[in-house]
Design a protein that fits this description.
The complex is a heterodimer of chains A (628) and B (525). Chain A is built from 23 helices and 17 strands. By secondary structure, chain A is α+β, with helices and mostly antiparallel strands. Chain B is an alpha/beta fold. The chains are: A alpha+beta (628), B alpha/beta (525). The interface between A and B is large, with 150 and 139 residues. Chain B: GO terms for molecular function: tRNA (adenine(58)-N1)-methyltransferase activity.
Chain lengths: 628, 525
Amino acid sequence: MHSLVQPNSWIALRLPSDVTRVFKILPDKTISLGKYGSFPSNLIIQRPYHLTYEILDKKEGEGFSRLRVVPTAELYAEVLAEEAACGDTPDNNESTSISATEKVEYKVVDEEGKVVDVLDENARQTLTQEEIEELKRDGSGAGKELIKKLLLSHNALDQKTSFSLAKYKLLKTKKYIRRFQVLPVDVHNFAKWQLEERDASKILDLREEMLGLVGCWGNVHYGGDDVYLEDPGATGEQGEEMLPKIDEGLLAGRWLVVDDTCGVLVAALAERMGFLYPEEEDDESKSDGRVGEESEAAPEQAPTAVENGKIEAQDDQKDTEMADATTQEQQPPAEATTGEAKAKQHKRGSDFAIPFSQTNTITVVHGATQPNLSFLTHWGFDVTAPNHPPHPLLNHLLTLSWLQLLNPTADTTYSTPPLTASPETLLSWKPGRRGNFHRKRRRFARTRHIVDTARAGGFSGLVCASTMDPISILKHTLPLLAGGAPVAIYSPTLEPLAQLADCFSVSRRGAWASGMVPEILDKTAEELERWAGTEDFPLNPTLLLGTSIHTSRARRWQVLPGRTHPLMTDRGGAEGYVFTGWRAKPAEGRVSARGKFQPKRRKVETGSASEAATPTVETPKVETPVTA
Amino acid sequence: MNMPTMVPVLRHNISPFLDPGSRTKANSLAIVQLSRDNLVPVYLQRPTGEHDGYKEGAVVNTKYGSYPHSTMLDVPWGSQIRASKVDTGSRGRKRKRPDGEDAGRPATDNNNNNNNNNTEEKTVETPKEESEPTNGAAAVAKPAVDDNSGFIHILPPTPEIWTMSLPHRTQVVYTPDYSYILHRIRARPGSVLIEAGAGSGSFSHASARAVFNGYPTPEYTKRKGKVYSFEYHEQRYHKMKSELEEHGLEGIVQLTHRDVYKDGFNIDGVSPQADAVFLDLPAPWEALQHLVRRRSTPGNDGWVSPLNPSKSVYICTFSPCIEQVTKTVSAMRRLGWVDIEMVEIAHRKLHTVRDRIGLNLPVDRGVNNSPKDVEEALARLTEIENRAREHARDSQLGGDDADATPMDVDTTTTKQNGNDGRQWSSKPWLDGRLVTRGEPEVKTHTSYLVFAILPREWTEEQEAAALARWPCGGEPKQVIGSLDKASRKKERREMLEKAGKSGDRNSRRKERIEQIGSPPPAPAQ
């Protein structure tokens, strides 16, 4: 993540009304914040994040408003003054804060703490709307003047308690002060904005607490330095025999992801694995020349296309577009101009060169023909763009459909052998056809690689936030997990996860281990790992360990001198739950448990006793037939 | 088999927390899962002959049987391990029983032991027992023989599992808290973190995983994530230090024994350049004075800020009391931190249970033998009523045997009920209604978390330079943000045109049509 606002990147502006605006910051534009005013975008480009600015009044002869960084002392002036007042007499906090009963002359205090205006007792009239509008138009002091006037002209101000006065002032400040804060669009800010201000259902009500939990219980972290397969150097005449062989020894640090949150989950995991943001560069050293001009056009395409919901159409269109071009030389947009990005850009090898790292990857399985990861555009990545400018996600994000994962031969891309052509034929073709030829061969190699590595299994973990039934997801993904790999499944509601947890209940495990399930008796361990599921046993209950369901919620507090308390309201709706467990490798043959905690032994009722609260009762050993 | 010799071996390996590999390894940490919440850390050893009286080498004794390390080595993670027949009796005062009450103790003993010293032999055995000299110490360990019951699972260590099983030294920062904190303070691969108050080390492990992006190498390639951890308590410091070594995390976590209130966060006067800070201290506000961009007080000429000068720095303080929070927040306000927010994490763990209610269910623990619905209640009441009526009729009719017969009938019928009606279905796992229930004990308060951000410094000169590079005033009337419809349409049209120029066939055709003179196509909206 950059330390300065980069041109053409996405930023968030937080307004005094607590509304956040998220947009792409283009150079040489005017940013309009509605009633709070507007200012040139160049004034915040290459400036630090988290500063609070005030929109100043237009200077004589200038057509735009300049900005002023509001020092924190000014932001906190009132609280600090209050603290200072309380600090001298810590014992009678109570009496100083509630001063309603006292006859106080209300004063309006300026930044330095000097009293500027004593409220005129005779100020009986309130400002009319027209007057306010006029003041706004005159707009001096970034709205501060106006707020002061409003307070002064309130005729019942002296009847207010200090609490309600503070509230009143805050209300007016929120409405009229012309300030904003610049925030980076990282996963935390974006998800929060999407959840609280946009469409929470789009990201399945995934709260920040849940993002943290899912990432930690999924043990998602940097999965090792990049390892690439050697370019087989296949010529146009060579077919699938030249595809690079998958070396399972190289595969490491791979996470399997099912994401129905339009890419927020993938972004959160990519952030944890260190390939969401383009590698940092020294912002200061990049001072030579502006990047703005030439880069404006290109990156614009991606997000708008997705917003219009034309993902697939766009894909086709881009394919043809690409076919026209003589492959890679066509694309030097945005980031390509920076030196560092150039170094990152791989020289494209032969058609069968695998662009993906063998380590530190996310494999996304999607239910539609194309993955819906549209929110990744906020981090400069468009999953549907076939000829993408360099981005770390390109080499680390693998996507495949459930069809490709479970029945690859039914998938055309996977099963159609690649085209071949002799160099002479190739040369005789028009560039468009030639481009198409290479594109198809590359797509074939990519698909083959993604599908084959995914089916090889050995994933380091599974993370889900999906609308699909978690039981069906686990049925097909459990065999793909390495032993000990964690599973973290998010669901906005509890019921699907409760049903899932019930599949691993003590009774089920007990019955399974004690041979009460006739279907499994003649099966090998391998067959049991790929258990297709029956009505009674949708999943092999011995494949997950330590299953539990978590939820957590952050309660926000207001911390002000003498007025500290939890916030009165918070977001309701879906609570959000995470199911966790670890993949087990059951021993072959029958394994009996041991334990002496059951007070009475009952033959018939084996495995049926309550799995109630106490942890000791819930050991797998307890309920199964006891031989010890 | 001494501890110090182990350490260098571990140093070469990548920490099992960061990459456990696919199988268990010798001299590395593994977690033995006895039951869901009963996890015991074990340092696996290759058996090299008789060990502490066990012919099989080092052995983990649990209440679910004995497990020689040889059975747990070089198996895939997550493997289910059968108990072995281990002679625990003849080596000391123990009775000759493989799973006596004595076997239950080592699990807890292990934990205590981890507290005392971190030598791995002692982690896995009962230390209080003196090993008895046995006849001719065998050079080769006896191969383990499967016992007929008992099993455990072996898991790779993760910060979550470690947090569940670690030896407590101080209050532990649990997973719900640290997951949220790390997410909010933006601990990512490559970040540099300051952690003050290493405590029990759960946060150190989790943050090490979060910032890890490769072990530091002599040749500088990219900024490597690192955790600078500080601990004031000397004993805790030493324990933590050896723990980090055993876990192969020394390259990632640099632990310093220091009073940070007094001495700040720089290492030998060099700034760690931290991107994020986590303070688990009794008085965070006293440490905050060191976490500033520059100092105004004279006499600090050589002082450098421990913070990354080119980035916004995120902080989180972790304090249990509200008074601490008030002071911390007040100090933060004075020191120029922004976006100060205090939250409290409430975490719940839910158990799924089958709620078994019904008259026809057998009497058992966890079974509520009351009617499951009105119909059942009604049926039962009717039955009782009928029986009473019958009884009354019988006693009216029959004279002397009236007291005997109905009683007999009554007892036999209930007995019959017990045998016929009251029993489990053939699928006991489907009985009852599926419900969720909280844990028996809930953590209602861990600590208050105060978050804040310190923006980077921005000087007049930097501002002037930026303004020179990004001059304003000359921009065209193009607006981002709340656009009116007309300019939005215009922008869209321009964008389409631009896209057209870069090679799209359709838009080129459109362009051509436009040139020819037909009316410009209306934007799609």
